[in-house]
Amino acid sequence: MQPTNDSNKIKICVSGAAEMGFLGPADYEIAKEVGREIARQGAVIVTGATTGFPLWAAKGAKEAGGFSVGFSPASTEREHLEVYRLPIECMDLMIYTGFGYVGRDLLLTRASDGIVIGPGRIGTIHEFTIAYEDGKPLSILHGDWDTDEVIQNIMDKSHRQNDMVSFSNTPKEVVAKAIEMAKKVRSGEKHYVNDDKIGGSQGERIL
Description:
Elements: E1 11-15, H1 26-40, E2 44-47, H2 52-63, E3 68-72, H3 77-82, E4 93-96, H4 100-110, E5 114-117, H5 122-134, E6 138-141, H6 147-156, E7 165-168, H7 171-187
Parallel strand pairs: 1-2, 1-5, 2-3, 3-4, 5-6, 6-7
Helix pairs in contact: 1-2, 1-7, 4-5
């Protein structure tokens, strides 16, 4: 049997609220099922090494035998634990960025092949807008929250086309769509043209 190569697997970032006090108990299970589906569908889960929705997704991925990567806002494990007070559980690989939450978000989304968006607040919206501007595959989960509606409103008023965004009703579907779009980018069927490389053109970004 050939050894598996996790470096070649699709890497799916899970973005969602670190503070889930405003959500219902069922949302924790939804997060875990998103993580389980990432593992079941053969991808690696990537998170901001934080609490809440991303942590529970990482727990689900580990339960299903998956591999979990965390991008911390801290520069060291000690800072991660003592200053940011974030967990290290469920992480197979930790990357200490040292860039705080804002800088971490950029590295987190750019290191991923696709992003699944669950319920969240400003941090989740920040990760969405970075990935959206970058032309990353984005798979949005509908639920008993308004994050999906906020994202749709941002897209409608952004004056920026991005056809690598989808909306789904179930964890299985939201993960499958993220992986499908990510594979299209890897294969060259879809690709992104960065404005910085074409003189700041404001035309279509996904070709």
